[in-house]
Amino acid sequence: MEPGSRFHESSEDAMHNVPVWETGERTNYAPLTHDATADIVVIGLGGSGLAAVLAARARGYSVIGIDAAAVAAGAAGRNGGFLLQGTAAFYHDARAAIGHDRARALYDITGQELRRIAAETPDSVRITGSLRIAWSDAELDDCDVQYEALREDGFAVEHYVGSEGKGLLFPGDGVYQPLARCRTLAAMAVAAGAGLHEGTYATDIAGDEVRTPHGSIRCNAVIAAVDGGLRAMFPELSSRVRTARLQMLATAPERDVHFPRPVYARYGYEYWQQLPDGRITLGGFRDRYAQDEWTDADTPSPEIQDLLERHLRDVLHVSAPIEHRWAASVGYTDNELPIFEEVRPGVWAIGGYSGTGNVIGAACGRAAVECVSGGDPQIARLLNATTGPA
Q1: Cβ atoms of residues 280 and 250 within 8 Å
Q2: DSSP states of 146-191 as a string?
Q3: What is the DSSP letter of 31?
Q4: How many helices and strands, by DSSP H and E, does the chain display?
Q5: pTM over 0.90
Q6: Strands (E), 219-321
Q7: Residue 164 CA: distances (Å) to CA of 133, 142, 199, 247, 250
């Protein structure tokens, strides 16, 4: 995009780095200012952390949840709003990488979790199905392999030809308003008796105590659910998880195009959806400046934003003005499977969802509480299995 693009002209505009999901309607939770005690401390109040808080309260544990910023201030409230079954890898790739039975079980677990999310916060979720659109003949061939693998294992998938292009339709997938859902979960957690504190970061983390600048929390266990922050929080994980920046934009309502389902294109590097009011959200192109996007920075860059704007105008044919540009930090792992482990005695770390944490992250948050309770949840066994392809 030429230097006169709106990003360059309006870098200080209020739209800059404000996600389209922000409505301004929120509840503030006071920082922790005193010493406290709880059975479980949850660090990170995004989707996975709040799922853990609610699961802990459902089991009768006393819980304190803290966040260095605010509820869903990170990627949980700044993502593309997709609810997709499976892990970060396409299903046939997952089968080849981690084994048939393991991939199938994870796909099934995330399908169940997706339906649970829809039932838990129905006002925030729409089950629309999703599309994978091929950007080349080679990718269309890859779609055929994915189709055969899913059909072989009994999962819903259809060949697709439409105005978006050719590819696959996944009928059970959906979209949601991620920030609204997290704020709803936070309200549910407080109503259930949990203590939530924003603006409170952990300075020291052990299984029996979490220290913060203005108070310590004595506890029996800790669940750290910070995804893109895992690398900084736990140096012992730094060789296994990297932080990446994902960038998006959104427009004013657009009436001349219609996208009834969210779309993944070019192997998922680009993704977009149309909201019920007509606005278009679009993200992608991380691979075009890959080295620049391995960063803790969470503000948009002109280079990626210009590519997004060009795609919006020239490929999607959207003429509505851009009203939001934003970025988020997420954790990536080399094998595209999340981190789920007791990283220190009594301290469970979950994250590294490789850009697809909306569904599997919630499942991990609830399963972490089961681990704290002495259980052995299936998803923990699957994510930590040492067996290879089968």
Answers
A1: yes
A2: HHHHHHHTT---EEEEETTEEEEEETT-EEE-HHHHHHHHHHHHHH
A3: P
A4: 11, 21
A5: yes
A6: 221-225, 241-251, 263-265, 270-274, 280-284
A7: 7, 17, 43, 22, 18
Question: How many residues in total does the chain contain?
Answer: 390
Tens digit of each residue's pLDDT, the chain (390 residues): 333 444 443 444 436 899 999 999 999 999 999 999 999 999 999 999 999 999 999 999 999 999 999 999 999 999 999 999 999 999 999 999 999 999 999 999 999 999 999 999 999 999 999 999 999 999 999 999 999 999 999 999 999 999 999 999 999 999 999 999 999 999 999 999 999 999 999 999 999 999 999 999 999 999 999 999 999 999 999 999 999 999 999 999 999 999 999 999 999 999 999 999 999 999 999 999 999 999 999 999 999 999 999 999 999 999 999 999 999 999 999 999 999 999 999 999 999 999 999 999 999 999 999 999 999 999 999 999 864 443
Give the amino acid at 298. D
Tokens of 87: 């892990």
The DSSP bridge pattern shows strands 174-176 and 82-83 to be: antiparallel
The answer to whether the beta carbons of residues 324 and 20 sit under 8 Å apart is yes
